[in-house]
Batch of 3 targets.
Target 1
Amino acid sequence: MDVKRRDGDDDAVQPRPTQFTGHGGVPLRGDAYGDPAQPPVVLLHGGGQTRHAWGGTARALAAAGFHVVSIDHRGHGDSGWPEDADYNLPAFAGDVVAVAAQLGAPPVVVGASLGGLAGLMAEGEHGPVMRALVLVDVAPRMEASGVARIVGFMQTGLDGFDSLEAAADAIAAYLPHRKRPRDLGGLAKNLRQGEDGRWRWHWDPRFIRRDGPDPAFTQERLAAAAARLTIPTLIVRGRMSDVLSEEGVRELQALVPHAAYADVGAAHMVAGDANDAFTDAVVAFLTLNVAVAARPVRIA
């Protein structure tokens, strides 16, 4: 099948509410786009984000002819909060396995940061689960300083903000390379207002561990999972990322020698920083590896 963008097809890009049952029975909610009869693509956001991080990419992939499902992780957005607060990586990977089984066909998984690690572990330890995998600015080897900066930013918002403007100021300080938005309507989707009137991030505060790192979140375990990948794989790095270094990419390429690679002019939040370039890379990869039978190729 020759996949082409159909930007004028309004029906293809309108989101529809959808729900899945994740690992341990946790309800996972999200949006679906496009024709359910077409190859499924599951979009998994990073930790502390919601499915709304994928709006532009989801619509573009649906317009290109795919059935796109963008899901809130457990403990994030509109998905359920597990009673036992199981936010270890195997639980997120279990959610990927569960969602894939409910789609009726092996999906492509596009995962950013936490979403990418969940997809990597799902396929590497439980595969075959999916048809192809796109790892967005994540690999078994990540830079500790960049990860610490993300965690620090997430922790600063645990007590909430007086207003959306205050939250926007915090984001602007964390992402100085981005222009501060004038319209804060999109930001409201990623926060929830409590009975005390304060705005807090739209995720379970128990997601931030206080008893040390996730014991399953080890470079060795993730490297072993990567080495077992046989499906088409695309590695996307943000050129300005402080989380995934060029050395981290090279190590991942050594583990997955068939993987394609795209270098995008962005920081860690690639889809948010350079959505058009990121989406073009993903569409090109899927056109070659999913829509038609072809060997994985490197994207310049």
Target 2
Amino acid sequence: MISIRDIIKKSFLEGYSAKDINLEVVIFTILFTALIAAYIFAVYKRMCRKTFYSREFNISLVGVALIVAAIIITIQSSIVVSLGMVGALSIVRFRTAIKNPLDLMFLFWSISTGIICGAGFAEYAVVLAVALTIIVMLLDHFPAGKAPIILVVNADTLELEKSILDVVSEYSKHYTVKARNIYSSSLDLTIEITSKDVSELLKKLSSIEGVKGVSALAHDGETTF
């Protein structure tokens, strides 16, 4: 007599029957994934704006796409293998924090490419690559606001602050005093400004009697609109 458990087990296994995957399909899928991953490699190298370009991270994008594609192909072969694979991957922990949002986008793109190609929808991966490249390139060339400049002024006396800020206001409509360090007989000001005539501003500040030094530093923070 067939029990309810046997009926459920049979229907479950029939619903998730193994898929025959020959060697030619596997080779084609891996090669096609490698081509798109190489394209991701080239786009990341073109888009990278960091001071130190991480070649290791870029190579890992290619490796991640290939590994994920191989996992998806394996999962399709058997429901038992897929459950075991999920259990094995659940213990993996990545503790390296990705601070750059652009790196996170490329990593997710690489993973998505492996999943899509491994599932047998390679044409969708091509559409994703073309659409994402066009959108990202357009946004990259989209005009942004002028990045602020950090101005550091060293003065002999505390009374020079008003004169310094008056000169700054002539060359910058919007400025913010970020730090004010006062010593026994000297003053250090750190001011965030947006100005097109930075060189002229530095000359004007240097001409003030009592100003010992002026420095202008650019930073990669948020732009000011």
Target 3
Amino acid sequence: MNESKTTLYAIGLGPGADDLITLRALKILKEKVDVIVAPKASDNAKSLVLSILHKALPSLSESESKIEILELTFPMKQGPELLNSAWDEAFLKIKNKLENNLNVAFITEGDPAIYSTFAYILERVKKYIPNQRVEIVPAVTSFIAASALLNETLIEGEERLCVLPAHYGLEVLPRLLGDFDTIVLTKVFKVLDQLIIKLEKEQVLEKAVYVLKATMEGERICRDLKQLNIEEEKKNYFSMVIIYLRKRKGILSGDRSGQR
């Protein structure tokens, strides 16, 4: 079967700062695409990833821009049937653009290959239009950005790194603490109170650092998790905890302010 003439690009825009979008991503968006697909959490919500892109490419907002912007809803909270229905609907709209000989870019926060909404589209592309040409453009991830804010490396030498959403990781955390040298727990906002209790019980609370909105407006770092206002932090989706399990200089030594 011949490969398609059009390309579906999956383009990661990074953790939030528009100057962390890669040169390759910008080049493709400027020169090679006809349609930009921007996911959003609900029909009434604004697309955060689109707002990031507008800062980097303000020309997209101009009336003479030849690039079509297609905002599609990818619900965050629904049952499996409603979720699959939403993903199917989004896929069919993208498929229609590709069949009309248009190059499509699906933009995502972070990297398209890591906990990305693009995964649901790629699954359907492989199943229903297997000859479609797809190009994934990698990007800076939020946990890499967070570690950079801390002026720390995540892993060194033969050390092992674990990354997973916090609400999936609480039950297995005691085992993970023994198996890995650094653990990144993303989206901790829902389970932050339970996580703090668990870290304290496992005697590793002092090795954990809380990072909110890395590289975005409202960015904040807290090295003493017990000082956090739990109810306020539960409103913050872009939150993570990095647990550095080996002794390191600098990370908790007080050489920088407790919060930033």
